[in-house]
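Let us work through a complete example step by step.
Step 1: write down the sequence.
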Amino acid sequence: MPIVLWHGMGDTCCFPFSLGGVKKFLETEINVHVKSIEIGNSITEDFKSGYLIHPNEQVEMVCSDLSKDSKLKDGFNAIGFSQGGQFLRALVQRCPSLRINNLITLGGQHQGVFGLPNCPSLSSRTCERFRQLLNYAAYTDFMQNFLVQATYWHDPLNENKYKTSSTFLADINNELFVNKTYVDNLQSLNKFVMVQFNNDSIVQPVQSQWFGYYKPGQDKEIQTLQESDIFIEDRLGLKKMDEQNKLVFLECEGNHLQFTKEWFRANLFSYLM
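Step 2: predict the structure and record it as tokens.
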């Protein structure tokens, strides 16, 4: 079965030292067609998309592109890296024309982030500027339309503002309204595999990679997915998926997206065969 990859912030589809290398590794080891999603018409445009093209627009573009790919018509497995994880989940929920078998997210931010400790591929000054903008203006119309990371900024100190102002994450997490189509489409997956990097210095909090997050009203104590309203009220169908053994929680000792080929083989190949 073919494999589709979606890169994260500060990366592109095809750098040989990142997703280009992963693509080659999978093609060689599993001997399948691998498509690495590229947004725009060049590597430069693809890189910028990770910061400046709204996820809603990206998901719509990718839905159209993949739906036309004859090599994917009989279904495929999908792997999302960092923010590419929640983008691929949005694709599952919003693009029923695609037949996605297993969804694997590595270091995804399914409940968002509250903090931006490090920004890959950006200078420290630029990263600090992004942090300042997100801390003070994440939910303004300008920021929600200008900066990708603002669309999954989740302020646990102001849950209502997050739910009413987030233009991406609050929607795909059914925070305000339960979109039954999202629930049905997500449940069409065979397996939803979430990989958490236990020593991650980029995703804050780390537990967002497993759909965990800060308990509302503070930013110290963490609640698991199973303790959250999204699970207890089954707003996204995750409780039902868990009961059906469709949710898989894996962990990797390492920093953000730092895994070995041996770890990848041992833990993920069974979901790609």
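Step 3: interpret the result. The chain has a mean pLDDT of 94.
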